[in-house]
Amino acid sequence: MNVKQLRYIAFALVAVAFCSCQKDPSTSDLNRDYLVYTAHDSGTDFSSIGTYYLPDSILIIGNSDKTEYWKDEDALAIVDAVAAQMNNAGYLRIDEKEAANVGLQLSYVRQVTYFVGYNNPYWWWYYPYYWAPGYWGNWIGWHYPYSVYYGYTAGSLLMEMLNLEADQETGRKLPVIWDSYIGGLLTSDSELNLQRTIDAVDQAFAQSPYLTK
Among 165, 47, 163, 176, which residue's Cα sits nearest to residue 116? Predict the structure, then answer.
């Protein structure tokens, strides 16, 4: 065995020893990333949808026993980001709620945790929401025609698309045909929080290609 071969072996032994002393990679950095979850009704033909109505405020889900709206510049920036994505996907935003094919409602969770399950998704019945079922028409509640189960935590944004053309017979529930849950938005930097939220809205539409007409 020559000197060159011995040198390579020595280098290899050093590398092995170095690697064996390293800790497993930390996953703590993942906690700083936001999460974007989307789901939709596979039976809905989104290409047949033409118009949508989007309120100019975001519902606040918090500890208050009164309905709260988020309407400042940051809220409008988020609403505008949603509208831009809907417009780019080929939908037309209109001001007449009653004439729209679908409605979009945005909710922001602040300081509390709620859970939504497929079997019992009616957490909003216990809060005086801005868009209670009656806001959209003669409905008694919501209906997800697909499995949904996740938790809402502080600093989360929920987007829901409602089929406003569904049959409003007595006892019917308003179907949610697309929804997105965005979590992990809060940091100590308010400007960063807004940017993360807008980026997450864009990501929600990016991972929902079926929305594009």
Answer: 176
The SS3 of residue 80 is helix
pLDDT digits over 44-64, tens only? 999 999 999 999 999 988 766
In what helix (H) or strand (E) does residue 106 lie, and over which residues does it extend?
Answer: strand 102-109
Domain parsing of the chain, residue ranges: 32-211
Amino acid identity, residue 29? D
Segment 136-178, tens digit of pLDDT: 888 877 777 887 766 666 788 999 999 999 987 766 788 999 9
Quickly tell me which residue has 């600093």 as its tokens: 155
What are residue 108's DSSP bridge partners?
60, 157
Second-level CATH architecture of 32-211: 2-Layer Sandwich (3.30)
Give the global pTM.
0.70
